[in-house]
Amino acid sequence: MESLQPRDYIARIRRKLQQVGPMHTLHLLLVRTINRLALFKILRGILLLKVDPAFLDCPAGYTPGFLDEKQLRHFARDPQNELDDSFLDEALAKGDRCYAILDGENLAAYGWYSRQPTRINPPDMLLDFDPDYVYMYKGLTNPLYRGQRLHAIGMNRALQSYMEEGVRGIISYVESTNFDSLKSCFRLGYQAFGSIYLLRLFGRSLRLYSPACRHYRFALREEAPMGGEVGASKA
Predict the structure, then answer these.
(1) Residue 92 domain-assigned (yes or no)
(2) DSSP 8-class letter at 53
(3) pTM, to two decimals
(4) Which residues form the N-acetyltransferase domain (predicted)?
């Protein structure tokens, strides 16, 4: 745990107050304080129910679409793409799909989509959800391609494709302390529907759910880890 002098600690709090305001700062301090004693997370459930036509057209020269296993194994050779073999083995075995935007032979951006319960962080937890929705996780944009809204374009194109298969929308989560990601998701048209509270102390887990989670079958269940997390959100 990082050790700070009182003056540095106060300066950090002041910076956070300026960045996110008093309520978010208090929330962050509360969560961090609890995490000094136990694992504590609040997962904000979010939904995207409509395709935004403004985010369907790719910039000229880019190729969007779902990647097959051969393409994924090829891109996994580059550590910058964060696609190791153990991740691909588990994701592909459960039928998850990767929607990507390519710039020639380069992987510019991607996001993963699942219709099955998916491993999150901590890696012995699976996120369950209503199978009428598709779970979006592990979104990544190559730093060289940021600022072109490729994440939003890929996500909306993937949603359009899944809706043609009968899916009602995208379901996902963002941790409550990830204020920037939450703000970004809301700008993209996501709406919050509920929260999961996870507390782990002395090896035992307590999970509490806000009422709307039941409607979307949004829940956590434990399963033995398989060498690393798969479905942690990077939105």
Answers:
(1) yes
(2) G
(3) 0.86
(4) 46-213
Would you say residue 28 lies in a domain?
no
What is the reported pLDDT for 101? 98
Say if residues 173 and 46 touch (Cβ distance below 8 Å).
yes
pLDDT in tens, 172-228: 999 999 999 999 999 999 999 999 999 999 889 999 999 999 999 999 999 876 654
Percent pLDDT > 90 in the chain is 80
> Contact, 222 vs 198, CB < 8 A?
no
Long-range contacts of 40-43 (CB under 8 A, 24+ apart): 40/197, 40/198, 40/199, 40/200, 41/175, 41/176, 41/196, 41/197, 41/198, 42/175, 42/176, 42/177, 42/195, 42/196, 42/197, 42/198, 43/173, 43/174, 43/175, 43/176, 43/195, 43/196, 43/198, 43/220
Q: Can you give the pLDDT at residue 16?
A: 61
Q: What is the CATH number of the domain that holds 88?
A: 3.40.630.30
Q: How many folded domains does the chain comprise?
A: 1
The angle at the Cα of 234, spanning 123 to 121, to the nearest 5 degrees, equals: 15
Q: Among residues 18, 49, 59, 17, which one has the least CA distance to residue 154?
A: 59
